[in-house]
Amino acid sequence: MPHAVDPLANLQTLIRCPSVTPDDAGALFALEQMLAPMGFAVDRMTFAEHGTPDVENLYARLGEDGPHLMFAGHTDVVPVGDEAAWSHPPFAAEVSDGILYGRGAVDMKGGVACFVAAVARYITKNGPPPGSISFLITGDEEGPAINGTAKLLQWAADEGERWDACILGEPTNPDTLGDMVKIGRRGSLSGTLTVIGTQGHVAYPHLAENPLRGMAQLAEALLDPPLDAGTENFQPSNLEITTIDTGNPATNVIPAKVSAGFNIRFNDTWTVETLEAEIEDRLARAAASDRLRPGKDSQIRYELDWKRPPSPVFLTRDEALVGAVTSAIETVTGHAPEISTSGGTSDARFIKDYCPVIEFGLVGKTMHMVDECVAVPDLELLTDIYERMISDWFAGRA
Ligand SMILES: [Zn+2]
């Protein structure tokens, strides 16, 4: 059998490297051993930054001309948790009743293993692609993500690399392979709001200023009215207050100040700048009211700190890329996928600054859990989908 065409064998090799972030444990070497015999030029680089662990990364390219298709992903995994709770050892990659068990099976060594197999099959049938295929693989997705994809993209761009499209192999399907592709993400913006009062005795509130009264007014202004009603591609933006804290254990003391933390997941109604302006405007207006502070004619004293950096919202509008992925899914599974922008952030937030990016991988149900697993037939299905997608994407660019 030609090299690396079996996604199950590829995945077992990768899972047997216990590459819990930031350890590589041989995972990238194993990947290099799969790619180099196919003709990929492989670069391995370690990125370092003060205060974070060094992390190994890999960039591999087959071909010298455009168009250029990139597959992005990671070989690091989250810790196993309670190892005794696993029904199969987390790094043994055992198959039982058609299910492969192991940490990283779906998040996302499985996606990497399938894309390697898809490229190997494509080359076996067609020879080298009419353009280039590259792998951009980090060992720092599940960790601080400082010595990973962002630096790898910058490194490759400095080397003159340019891409026309990227597929990121994170597990995107909620239940069944082919359910969902992701073409964007809401942005994320966090802040801390502090209201300053004057400490005092609860029996003499006129001598104090309870900052919780001011906080109640400001918190209401953050929450009401809703930020928006959603857009064509996105669910409504949402602000969640995640803590309100005075550090005050006494019920007979009015505290001196109170801090609230909040996070906003926002859609393409907003940019970071317009959203910050909206929040600042709401707070300024609410601070002028004395509704919950009878007898206080001064403004609520408060400070607002935005957490840096925020994550901007993004949406991929590349019809050729989205079309190649969705039609490959429909051809292989018989069903059109839902096109979604739901969920938390991913490395797509870095890639979108370099080229259009779409996310599609395995079924995510067991990711980060004890007994993370993948159905072996899903590995074949995903490999078929990736192979077809590669074919269609290059055919569409010819
Ligand atoms: Zn992942």
How are the elements arranged and paired?
Blueprint: H1 7-15, H2 27-35, E1 41-49, E2 52-62, E3 68-74, E4 95-96, E5 99-101, H3 109-126, E6 132-138, H4 149-158, E7 165-168, E8 180-182, E9 184-185, E10 187-196, E11 200-201, H5 211-223, E12 238-245, E13 253-254, E14 257-266, H6 272-287, E15 301-306, E16 314-315, H7 319-333, E17 338-340, H8 348-351, E18 357-359, E19 373-375, H9 376-397
Parallel strand pairs: 3-6, 3-7, 7-18, 8-17
Antiparallel strand pairs: 1-2, 2-6, 4-5, 5-19, 9-16, 10-14, 10-15, 11-13, 12-14
Helix pairs in contact: 1-2, 1-3, 3-9, 5-6, 7-9
What key attributes describe this structure?
alpha+beta; four-stranded antiparallel beta sheet; 19 strands; binds zinc ion
Quick one: biggest sheet?
6 strands, mixed
* Fraction in helix: 25-40%
> What compounds are bound to the protein?
zinc ion
Ends apart, CA distance between termini: 30 Å
* Tally of strands: 19
Q: Overall mean pLDDT score?
A: 95
Q: How many helical stretches?
A: 9
Q: Which series of helices and strands comes N to C?
A: HHEEEEEHEHEEEEEHEEEHEEHEHEEH
Please indicate the percent range of residues in DSSP E strands (runs of 2 or more). 15-25%
The spatial strand order of the largest sheet comes to 1-2-6-3-7-18
Which structural category do the helix and sheet elements fall into? Answer: alpha+beta
Shape: elongated
What Rg do the Cα atoms give?
A: 25 Å
Unreliable runs = none
